[in-house]
Amino acid sequence: DVTDARSAEQRLRRDREMLAAMVDHVPLMAGLLSESGGVLMTNRQLRKTFGYTAEDSRKHDMMELCYPDPEYREYVREHLLTASSQPFSAKAMTKFGWTVDVEWRVLRLSDGTMLCLGEDVTESRKARHQAAELEGRLRDTQRRESLGLMAAGVA
Fold first, then answer.
1. Is the Cβ–Cβ distance between 79 and 88 less than 8 Å?
2. Exposed, middle or buried by CB within 10 Å (0-12, 13-18, 19+), for 54?
3. What local confidence, expressed as pLDDT, does residue 113 receive?
4. CB environment 82-119: b (16+ within 10 A), e (fewer)
5. Phi–psi pair at 92, nearest 5 degrees
6. Phi/psi of residue 41, each to 5°?
């Protein structure tokens, strides 16, 4: 009957609105790609990270802008199109010329489109690299210290 149809329509509209709000406010980058890899939609975090507007993504090939090297762009496109939930990393170029390390996960939806979820891991990778470097220096210092103590004991 008409009341049930209206109620179902209202629930569907609410669910779509809720999903759109969640995707736009999640702290991960999210984009929806067509089966051929064209950008259909981007969320706020992706636009903030890369510096491009929703208008930019409609007017330009975002893959070309974010991955200017043709060979590397093809490598990224192939990984995206395989739609594996296994993470893969890619270095991308922002509108401002900065390079960001992004860890992507891709989920293929029933209509063939792909939901791409990305995390900017640039700073965490730098921090891990710096921590490893400091650990190496500490081990080297400790080794030199023990050699110094052994030499002092011999003398």
1. yes
2. middle
3. 92
4. ebeeeebebebbeeeeeebbbbbbbebeeeebbbbbbb
5. -120, 155
6. -160, 145
Which helix (DSSP H) or strand (DSSP E) does residue 7 occupy? helix 2-25
CB 79 within 8 A of CB 105: no
pLDDT tens-digit readout, 4-50: 888 888 888 888 888 788 877 788 999 998 888 788 889 999 999 99
Q: How many residues does this entry show for the chain?
A: 155
- The single-letter code of the amino acid at 62 is M
pTM of this prediction?
0.70
pLDDT value at position 85?
Answer: 73
